[in-house]
Task: structure prediction
Amino acid sequence: MTLRAALAQGQFVVTAEASPPKGTNVAGAIAEAEHLRGRVQAFNVTDQQSSVMRLGSLALCYLLKERGLEPIFQVTCRDRNRIALQSDLLSAAALGIENVLCLTGDHVKLGDHPQAKPVFDLDSVSLLRAAAGLVAGQDMAGKKLDGTPDFFLGAVVSPGADPVEPQLLKMEKKAQAGAEFFQTQAIFDPDAFARFMEAARPMGKPVFAGIIMLKSAGMARFMNRNVPGVHVPDRLIEVMETAKDRQEASVGVAVELIRQLRPLCQGIHLMAMGWDHLLPRVLEATGLAAQGVV
Amino acid sequence: MIVAQQKPLEDIRQMARGFRRLLVLGCGTCTTICFAGGEKEVGLLATSLRSVLGQEIEIEEAVVQRQCEWEFLDQVGEAVGRAEAVLSLGCGVGVQGIGERYPGVVVLPGLNTAFMGLTEAPGIWGERCMACGDCLLHRTGGICPVARCAKSLLNGPCGGVQDGHCEISPENPCAWVLIYDRLMQQGRLEQLEEIIPVRDWKASHSGGPRRIVRPDLREMVEEEV
Result:
C-alpha cells in the first residue's frame, strides 16, 4: 500500500529520513533503509540538506524504489530554477516516484559551499502549484504535457517557529497550492504541538510530527541555540545529561514523545541523526513496528 | 541612495601602482551621504596614497556633484585630461560614467558598491531595494521581501526564522515577520491570505541589462534639435 492509500485509509503512518551520501557510495544509505524495511511506510530522501553538497535525492529515491521501498522525493527551490524543477519532477514521475515533498530549502550560506549563488526562482508555495499544474497536464508556461505525472504532494511546517502565526498563514497557502500532507520540524514539546494542531487541524491535511533522536544534552543545547523552531525542554536535557546509557535514554525520550504526539496527528517522521539502529526499538515500543507493506 | 564602501587601502595601492598622475574623484551625491566618497574621503584617501606610493605619484583631488551625469562630468574635463588614471570614489555607475565620457583615461574603482538602501542609524546602512523591475510593495505592507528576505520569498517566512530574525544573518530581522507585524498594526492581515504568484524575473536583471526609453521625452528633445 502506498503512502497516499495508507493515509486515505486513516492509518497512522511512519516515515523515516534517508540521507544521500557525499560521494557515490550509496551502500550505507541503502543498508539503513533496508534496516527499516517493513517498519516504516516511506523514506523521505533529503535534497542536499543544510545546503551540504551530496548525491542527489532523485538518484537515491530511485535506488530505494528499485528495491521495493517507497521513497518521498524532497525538492527544494535553492539550486534550481523553474525549468530545472519541473524537469526533475517529470524525471521523478518517469522513474515511478509518486511522493514529492516541496520545500524552500536552506540558504546556501549554511552549507559547505557558502560562496554559491542561490536560486529561489520559486518558493515552496509556487513549487507546489507548479507540481499540481504538472499533474493537471500543463507546465508553468501553460504548455500541454505529453504524459502527465501523478504526484502525492507534501510540504513542511515549523510549529515551533517564533512567531508561529506567519507559519500558519503559509501552511494554509501550501494546502491551497496542492499540499496533501505536512511534515513538521522536530517536536519536543507536546503541549505546544497540541496548540499548533488546534490551528492546523481545520486545514484538514494529515500532519506528521518530526521526531529527532536526541543523542546528548550537548546536542539538545546546540539545537536550542542554532536550529530555528526547535526547543528541547530542560527536563529532556536533564534526562540526557544524567543518563547512564545515552542510547537507552534516547529511545525512552522518543517513545514518550511519540505516545504523547500520536493522538494529536496522523503520523510521525523519524530523523535518526545516525542512530538508525535504534529506530526499530522505538517503533516496537510504541506499537508502530508493523508499518508499510513491502 | 546607493550605498558603497571603500576598498581596502592595499587593494587600491595595487590598482594605482605604476601610474604617475592620478586624479582621485569623489561624488557629491550618494557616496558623499554614506561617507564613502565625498570631499572628506577623497582628501583622506589621497593623503594615504601619497604616503604609501611616495614620490612616484602625483595626486590631484576633485569632487563632482554626480558622476552619473554628463553635465557634471564635463566640469572636470581638464583635471581628467592631466591624469593617467582616475580613481573614482563614486559607485559602479560613476566609474562607468567617467569611462564613457573619457574613454582614453584608465578608471579605477575605489569603492565596492554594496546596495540600494537607507541610513538606519548613524553609521548603519541597510538594503531596501533590488530594482527587480516589478514593484510589489503594495501587497507586502510596504516592506520588500525580494530585497529583505535572503531567499526573496513571496508567500511568507521559511522555517529559518528565529526570534523574529533571519537564521543566516541574525542582525537582520525576518522580512516576513516585519510584513506580518506591519499589516497587523494596520489591521490588514487578510492581505497575506492570497498567494502571490511567481515573479516574472524578466523585469529584473535576470532579463539582461535594462534600459528605459521614454518616447515622450525623446520627442521633446528631437523637436528642440
Observations:
- The beta strands of chain B are 2-6, 21-27, 58-64, 85-88, 106-109, 111-121, 124-129, 161-162, 165-166, 169-173.
